[in-house]
Amino acid sequence: MSKTVLITGASGGIGKELANRFVKDRYNMVLVARSEGKLEELAKEYREGYGVQVTVYAKDVSLPGVAEEIASDLKKKGITVDYLVNNAGFGLYGEFLETQLEQEMNMIDVNIKALTIMTKVFLPDMVKRCRGGVMNVASVGAFYPGPLMSVYFATKAYVLSFTEALENELSGTAVTVTALCPGPTATDFTSRAELGSSKLYKSGVMKVEEVADEAYRDFLRGKTLIVPGTVHRFITSLPRLLPRKVMARLIRERTARVEQ
């Protein structure tokens, strides 16, 4: 029997690339994102190209009751979610005193609240069935403070800590929990977070296909932590070697915009 994966933020970027890899292995898909047009286009491609079942929800997972609504509808349709990929998220660039509170609270709702609720809703059934896995998309920014992106880095620190704690709680079950911590990646995230002119992104990014390849392989192997790219794995080791104030200064220098 084919397994089913649910992916949030599935209409582009890492979410879409992960979906491409699951569907090539004939997983049935549940695609969630706000862009109905992009989701329907992707669903048509998957159904016609791979003959899999694709269910689409053009919804904002950060809104109250949406996760429960999706779970209820899937149950009515007899669809069991074997794997959950919490990919929906976005970033915000700027000094905290200058950024908009509404945008920051929206980011917290998407990056933290929605991820937590989706996990709460779908994880219990996986444990009952003694199979399944959850991938939470964090960031290399989860490992250190992030001046000029302070709230974003903090949300990803939550995701990493939450995931590692769940992994411990679920030891002894057959359910895996994974934190994917990509570094700078060539996706629409860069433009939404207004990071395109930062030194961090000018210095080079990973191709989204490379990130998805490593993430997909290691997730199905049951790894708890995935940091794609040798350079990024090295960077995540720096907080163990340097004082956090030094890390904050280094990150600010790399995140600062390059003058045009």
TrEMBL record:
One of its GO terms (cellular component) is membrane. The keyword Protease does not apply. The keyword Oxidoreductase applies. Gene3D superfamilies: NAD(P)-binding Rossmann-like Domain. Belongs to the short-chain dehydrogenases/reductases (SDR) family. The lineage of its organism: Bacteria, Bacillati, Bacillota, Bacilli, Bacillales. This is Short-subunit dehydrogenase. GO terms for molecular function: oxidoreductase activity. It holds the Pfam family adh_short. Keywords: Oxidoreductase.
